[in-house]
Request: fold
Amino acid sequence: MKNSQDNQELKKSVGIAAAGLVANGMVCGIGTGSTVAFFIEELGRRVKQEKLQIIGVPTSFQSKILCQKYNIFLRDTQDCAVLDLAVDGADEVDPDLNVIKGGGAAQTREKIVAAMAKQFVVIVDESKLVPRLNYAFPVPLEIIPSALGFIQEQIKLLGGLGTLRMGVRKDGPVVTDNGQFILDVQFKPGSDLRKIDQKLHQTPGIVETGLFYDMTAMVLVGSAADMKVKKLVKGS
Reply:
């Protein structure tokens, strides 16, 4: 059985492997989360020891602060149009390499950065591989607070149940870096999530969903069986 130490080692191994994809002179999107933290740490080591020269484009305040700690030169998202590469974690990955993101409440900025990238690479441990999206993890929606009641009703009409994400060490709801709320939604098994995603994007008050369809070029997976990194490529 995999223990927490093994899980950290898996995250570290895929983070290091992803950092190996970053070449000198790249403008690189940098995601958010515990696995990406190891990616940032390894980038920092390469910047210091190998004199790697890159520009990082972070998706959250958390990642920005960590990049600054490791002296990675940064650029704001609004100052970019195209990125050479973007690396991020995921909460679920299906067999077609579609993913759910948003466990860190940063999916809107993460999706913008992923869309900018010539290549979007996802890094996970094997526990994140699922037979279908929304299998165990809810679909996070970033919403405008004033639309909460309306959106919850619209979600019911789509066969889902939305729960407002609450803060753990603060009173009240989680507030994103964009100043919005997060609704975590569970849909019925067998729901056509791709079709639902289209309808959600047409619903006033929903800023963005955590469903990333047809965006991932490669997934690096940490395998507990041999403690190695496996590469999954779109279409293979």
User: Anything to note?
Assistant: The two ends are 29 Å apart (CA to CA).
